Write a sequence for this structure.
């Protein structure tokens, strides 16, 4: 490996120096300092490194970024309702350029079984466990961007669900980036913990306003105790000029479940890393992802699922619809430790290419050290089914509408997995908006019921 | 209504249709028979507008228009329907939704009002019952996991809903049990009328006992080598194709 290029990290070091020491406890300052050292030593991922083989950060290296000020930028409530993907019938936390906006948020009341507050406040107030949980971000094996987040995060959400609390309303986190001058960077840190038997549905939505450049570098981690369950939705709706690099870490104790639905609808260069550690028996982990790319969008999904205990299941389905010159990457690692007998792991990656210039690179990596396991994986890359297209057209459906219908059909199992009706309708609308042709959103009736 | 003249078509580099002429008038049922690989399905696909089949000669006029000049969807909107020999599975698209989209697309083309989901469902159920298609298949993805017979019934069901003026049924009888055959034939017969024409491709006389044709044509190696009345089908059933092939090869004898 070549040494990291100091020029690559300079803009981040400058931002760190300029910000100075943040208000807060001593552990935070040393944690951030330590993280900055790690980032500085490793630098940005090098071109040609195995984990970044298909994703080129040259565009990012050339730019300079600055942290947003501590004052939230103004958005009006009418704007807000247009920005949300669905009516937030539960709780809502809005962050504008990385800064929490109390005005637009609706947080649960104390004693309701769920605590949601800006991470900065949780740290300042010394919420129980906050230091350990923030520090646990180091344990997922993520690369330099996670360290960069640890060094520079200002806020994000602190979410804690108490023992046995079943939170039925979803919690919606909206992270808005608005970077008219093309230099903004945000490093939101969302720390989620569920005590035994707790239940939570979390929506993370990353939205960019405008086409200019910015860096969005969120890091979210979950700590899920025995018998607890989380459903997680992640939406990437970033601007055309954006760099979106995210890390999602999950730790699951016995008989817990975690289901993540990730939807990437827009962004310049998008890289999502997910690492799920199945650390108790009887754990269920589901990672689903849908990418819809066009133009010159680049979306790279890297997932790792680590089975270290017996009798756990993991299901993974990532799909990509790529038009024009879009480039999709999927790298899915499944690691099964020697003790993880009776593991049942299924991974599937499917891409639909709508043009000759769209590209998909797919790489499954199975590392299995237990002998009594069921692990399957499959990857397909294909074009629209011509026979299906002709069949639809022969029934009177126009060519464009038939194409849209088939693309929708390809994506439908991921959309139909959304339990929240409003979110499902919102995702469907985005899907149709992104697809070629002027087909109307078909509502939930498209897929077979 | 349909006038095919000296139609020639090829797929990739193989000439399959080598000069077919066939006229279907409103109200008529034409049966097309012939050995495997003779070009029957190709004829159906060319009529429906499949892009893999390149028309290399001849013409097809439909209601006075040049059919070959039209997109597949426009042909459907003008009333052409092909019941596929091998219906295509479309995972992820509900049967009901698919057919409602198709019907509304056709209605829109004709300047008629579109049907809402409720009115459509009523119509779909009525037609499903007509062809004895299990209503639960309406909610499933198009043809996915349907049995062979269910797929064929689903084709006839679609025909009943879309009410074409020219229907080409490509081996809709194969793979059907006897009861299903009757149900399908009843469905077709209920649609017979003075304004509608049918081309029924089949290998078996049995279907033609239920759907009695006005004409029977024998297709062989891309040409119609014999045409006759319904009794021709009986003769074929008895004697096979060889005698006609010989007769066609030696027209003098
Ligand atoms: N897409 C294609 N590519 C190559 N050859 C084709 C294609 N479609 C048809 N053919 C060939 O054209 C010939 C006629 O096929 P067609 O399906 O029309 O026959 P058919 O009369 O319907 O036969 P069957 O009774 O078996 O259904 C066959 O030899 C077939 O292999
Ligand atoms: Mg055939």
């Amino acid at each position: 490996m070549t040494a990291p290029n100091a020029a690559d990290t300079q803009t981040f070091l400058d931002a760190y120096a300029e910000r100075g020491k943040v208000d807060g406890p001593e552990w935070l300052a040393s944690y951030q300092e330590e993280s900055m050292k790690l980032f500085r030593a490793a630098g940005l991922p090098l071109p040609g490194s195995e984990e970044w083989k298909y994703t080129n950060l040259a565009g990012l290296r050339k730019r300079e970024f600055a942290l947003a000020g501590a004052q939230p930028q103004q958005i009006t409530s009418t704007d807000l309702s247009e920005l949300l993907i669905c009516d937030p019938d539960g709780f809502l936390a809005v962050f504008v350029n990385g800064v929490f906006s109390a005005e637009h948020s609706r947080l649960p009341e104390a004693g309701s079984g769920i605590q949601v507050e800006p991470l900065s406040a949780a740290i300042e107030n010394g919420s129980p466990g906050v230091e350990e949980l923030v520090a646990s971000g180091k344990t997922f094996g993520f690369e330099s961007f996670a360290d960069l987040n640890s060094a520079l995060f200002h806020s994000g959400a602190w979410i804690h669900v108490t023992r046995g609390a079943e939170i039925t309303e979803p919690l919606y986190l909206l992270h808005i980036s608005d970077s008219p001058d093309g230099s903004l960077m945000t490093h939101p840190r969302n720390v989620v913990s569920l005590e035994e038997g707790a239940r939570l549905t979390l929506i993370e939505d990353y939205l960019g306003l405008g086409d200019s450049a910015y860096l969005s570098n969120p890091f979210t981690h979950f700590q899920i105790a025995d018998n607890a369950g989380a459903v997680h939705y992640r939406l990437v709706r970033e601007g055309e000029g954006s760099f979106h690099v995210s890390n999602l870490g999950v730790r699951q104790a016995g008989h817990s479940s975690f289901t993540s639905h990730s939807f990437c609808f827009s962004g310049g260069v998008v890289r999502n890393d997910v690492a799920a550690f199945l650390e108790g028996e009887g754990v269920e982990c589901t990672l689903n992802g849908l990418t819809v790319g066009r133009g010159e969008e680049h979306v790279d999904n890297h997932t790792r699922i680590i089975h270290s205990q017996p009798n756990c299941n993991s299901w993974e389905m990532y799909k990509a619809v790529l038009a024009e010159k879009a480039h999709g990457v999927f790298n899915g690692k499944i690691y099964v430790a020697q003790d993880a007998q009776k593991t049942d792991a299924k991974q599937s990656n499917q891409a639909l290419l709508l043009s000759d210039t769209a590209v998909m690179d797919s790489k499954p990596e199975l590392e299995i050290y237990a002998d009594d396991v069921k692990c399957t994986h499959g990857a397909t890359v294909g074009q629209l089914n011509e026979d299906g297209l002709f069949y639809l057209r022969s029934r009177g459906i126009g060519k464009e509408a038939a194409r849209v219908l088939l693309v929708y059909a390809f994506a439908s199992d991921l959309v139909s997995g959304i339990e929240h009706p409003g979110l499902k309708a919102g995702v469907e609308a985005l899907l149709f908006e992104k697809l070629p042709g002027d087909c109307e959103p078909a509502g939930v009736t498209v897929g077979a019921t | 209504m349909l006038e095919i003249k000296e139609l020639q078509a090829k797929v990739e580099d193989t000439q399959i249709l080598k000069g077919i002429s066939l006229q279907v008038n409103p109200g008529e049922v034409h049966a097309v028979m012939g050995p495997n690989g003779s070009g029957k399905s190709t004829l159906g696909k060319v009529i429906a507008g499949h892009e893999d089949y390149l028309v290399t000669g001849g013409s097809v006029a439909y209601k006075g228009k040049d059919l070959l000049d039209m997109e597949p969807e426009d042909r459907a909107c003008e009333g052409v329907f092909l019941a596929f020999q091998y219906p295509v599975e479309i995972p992820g698209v509900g049967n009901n939704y698919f057919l409602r989209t198709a019907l509304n697309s056709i209605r829109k083309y004709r300047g008629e009002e579109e049907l809402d989901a409720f009115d459509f469902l009523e119509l779909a159920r009525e037609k499903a019952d007509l062809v004895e298609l299990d209503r639960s298949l309406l909610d499933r993805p198009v043809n996915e996991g349907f049995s062979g017979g269910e797929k064929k019934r689903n084709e006839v069901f679609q025909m009943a809903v879309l009410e074409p003026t020219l229907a080409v049924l490509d081996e809709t009888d194969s793979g059907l049990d006897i009861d299903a055959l009757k149900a399908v034939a009843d469905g077709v017969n209920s649609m017979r009328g003075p304004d509608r024409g049918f081309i029924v491709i089949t290998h078996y006389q049995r279907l033609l006992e239920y759907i009695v044709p006005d004409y029977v044509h024998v297709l062989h190696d891309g040409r119609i080598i014999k045409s006759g009345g319904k009794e021709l089908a009986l003769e074929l059933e008895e004697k096979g194709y060889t005698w006609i092939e010989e007769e066609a090869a030696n027209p003098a004898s």
